[in-house]
Write a structure and sequence with these properties.
By secondary structure, this protein is mainly α. The chain has six helices and no strands. The chain has helices at residues 3-29, 34-60, 73-77, 84-90, 93-115, 122-148. Helix 4 (84-90) runs antiparallel to helix 5. The chain is elongated.
Length: 150
């Protein structure tokens, strides 16, 4: 895979992770239940760690993470966490969890797309595979919490 394409792919993942990190940080402050706050905090911290890992890989490959805070095209078209704010205003755990799951669906799709890329360096592919597993586990946890909150 050519360097420019790899850079764009990784910048998209970073943007997706930043959306998730912010979404979970927002969700954490707007739910009452302490166990949900802890879950959201854990997932926000996880996303921050994933961002650092991807950026480290980018530097090793002499690629440049996007430094501006602007939105990527994909994020502009589909901001997975956009409706979280309205769910939060109701402080309804089920609604918040449903929006978080929607964000996780988007993250899963982004990782599946990234992992289909040809000729990724093996160290980078390992990082993405590990992160993808974490994203899938987070999705399943959020879905389970959502289902049990009805």
């Amino acid at each position: 895979m050519e360097a420019k394409a790899t850079q764009a792919l990784l910048n998209e993942l970073v943007e997706t992770l930043k959306d998730g990190q912010k979404g979970y940080a927002d969700a954490m402050t707007d739910v009452e239940e302490s166990s949900l706050k802890d879950t959201f905090k854990h997932l926000a911290v996880q996303r921050a760690g994933y961002i650092t890992e991807i950026e480290d890989q980018m530097f090793k490959l002499d690629l440049h993470p996007k430094t501006d805070e602007g939105s990527s095209i994909t994020s502009t078209v589909h901001r997975a966490w956009i409706d979280l704010k309205s769910a939060l205003t109701s402080k309804d755990n089920h609604a918040v969890l449903a929006e978080c799951e929607r964000g996780e669906d988007y993250a899963k799709k982004a990782y599946a797309t990234a992992l289909k890329a040809q000729d990724l360096p093996s160290a980078l592919k390992s990082v993405l595979e590990k992160q993808s597993q974490g994203i899938n586990e987070a999705h399943d946890k959020i879905k389970s919490l959502r289902d049990s909150s009805k």
